[in-house]
Here is the input.
Amino acid sequence: MKPLTVAMLSIHSSPIGVLGTRDTGGMSVYVCELACQMGRKGHRVDIFTHRRHEDDPEVDCLAPNVRLVSLDIAPGHPLTKVELHACADDTMAAIEAFRHRQACVYDLIHSQYWISGHVGRMARERWQRPHAITFHTLGAVKAATGIGGAEPDRRLTVERKLVLDCQGLLVPCEGEKANLMHYYGADATRIYMVPGGVDLDCFRPMDKARARRRLGIDPHAVLMLSIGRLTPQKGQKRIIDALPHIESDRRPHLMVVGGNGDGDPEQRRLQKLAESAGVQDWVTFCGSVAHRNLPAYYAAADMVVLASHYESFGLVGLEALACGRPVVSTPVGVLAELARMRRPGIITTEGSPAELAAGIAAARDRVPDWPAHTIRQSVQDFSWTQAAEAALVAYQAVIKTDAGGHGLH
Ligand code: UDP
Here is the structure.
């Protein structure tokens, strides 16, 4: 395959941002891992994001052939997603200025999320290169859950347009393909499957007792773990609501990883909820934890609970399984699909407190049937190398189709 040069747009969220905080999670991991894998194979990837801190360098080399380009869109002002959207013209101008200075010619634009997608459309018009997008989440699906604040109308309009006119829609699992077709009438022939992955070297089974010693966790506690950004869509509230439905002498301890720590309004809301349900002694909030330190948390846990209202994929579920820990999950993202394939280590349950409590009890009973190495087999085919290969196949197909259409190839 001829090496490609890719403009990867990740405007609102940096691939090297603090994972687990408000707008930085799976998308950042996905962008960073895909780009670095492609770079190792000799493809060149420039990832464009907006500069958050004055001391961020304009160009940061993340791996061979991979550059992170920080754009000065509104220097000194951290921008919200909607504000960033309003700055799309300035963003495009900053990308174009960089491209001129560096004399770059891109083969393809790969946008992440609707904010970048909007800029990616402009780049497509200007450069006449194919534009592929990974939405990560879809406004229409979020709105349908009825959880969290209303999605801006602008988002739905932009997503609808992108589905109609971009050259490739990259989705991480079948559920998201179905969502694109159902909510936006997407043309199935332009949808390509590019799953997420897990770093199978980093996320691997580890001795539970050793992990607990390292983290200072009671060796006898029954511990369940929730990892993710603290947002209503992630359903941490559902897990807390489920705790009173488990008899106190069988109730596991819940450790919540993610969020901005004690000052985080969502953490305070969840803490209050636990207090009013009388289960505050069973819940610990840890704030966000560096990705490289998470394997010890997974290893220390008896199970991981994912009670999201919506996941377009759900990297945390893969990481838990790669570490050999069972996952109790609402039927979302890749977890729902792996459960349908009867891969070991997954119990799906609806999100009501009683059903979630029953799922947690069932996982606890089944732990002895599921040795860590058996659970890990569930995700052996989800390495980032495979994900990057799928992305490259999709890129080639998108470029070829566009060349047969009106692209300048
Ligand atoms: N994550 C992390 N530290 C945290 C919380 C989350 O490293 O404190 C990582 C987690 O390991 C996973 C990603 O952030 O790789 C979250 O991805 P996921 O697909 O589960 O959720 P999203 O953020 O995309 O909704």
User: Anything to note?
Assistant: The radius of gyration is 21 Å. The longest strand covers residues 44-50. The longest helix spans residues 384-404. The pocket of uridine-5'-diphosphate is lined by residues 19-20, 25-27, 29, 227-229, 257-258, 288-289, 291, 294, 313-316, 319 (CB under 6 Å).
